[in-house]
Amino acid sequence: MLTRSARTTVAVLLACLALLLAGCGGGSKKSAEPSGATASSAAATPGWAKGRATVRASQLPPEAQQTLKLIDQGGPFPYAKDGTVFGNFEKALPQQKRGYYHEYTVTTPKSRDRGARRLVTGQSGEVYYTGDHYKTFKAVLR
């Protein structure tokens, strides 16, 4: 039978071994993906974004970053249509029940109207960016 101090020593050694093995899980391997707005590691990409082009929030246009801040704060929003239901009629985003998605205008400099850029949010915390008025979307990684 092991003494109390021997059991403690074995427990500490096993914990250190577990940490060492967990840290050796390939974290030092370089990604084969090019760096840029669409590159992200598989582990850092949430399930809802898998298989979709991605962009980090910090790499969005400055106006989109500002809109994202307003969304996080709950407004106020500069356009009356901000926060309204996004119908997903183009079916470019995963199918969900009506009311699941909401859209927000991303101001376009020198545009006389709302422009083509939008952020679309989902009820489960998803955020998508489109710069071409719903033709394509990128999942925004935060």
TrEMBL record:
InterPro entries: N1-like, Ribonuclease/ribotoxin. Residues 1-22 form the signal peptide. It comes from Streptomyces noboritoensis. It comes from the Bacteria. This is Ribonuclease domain-containing protein. The keyword Nuclease applies. Keywords: Hydrolase, Nuclease, Signal.
